[in-house]
Predict the 3D structure of the following.
Amino acid sequence: MTMNTASQAEIASVCERGVDSYIEGMNKTAISNRINEGAMGAVFASALYVVFTGLSNLDYRMVIAPFVAGAAYATVGRRQAVNKDSEHRMSFEQVCSNLREDTEDAD
């Protein structure tokens, strides 16, 4: 397998930290993305509502509703991230076993 030394060092570092650390990092990234997407969607939807209804006819429930939906979106994302642990474990094992084989071949 041909890759530059920086990539190889990064992969070796991930493999050294272990599978649990890798899965935790993947879950944090997925959950963070879902929170950002939910928050941005809520801000966008609330802003559109305020623009089209004006401040005089503002119903705060309609402003808060997108944020509740965004929080639900983030919660579902957390559950989905945890459900993908086995996939992440398999990909970790595959890459790290390939790295070990390459290291043994080089010796």
About this structure: The longest helix spans residues 19-53. The chain has one domain: 29-106. The radius of gyration is 22 Å. The CA atoms of residues 23 and 85 lie 6 Å apart.
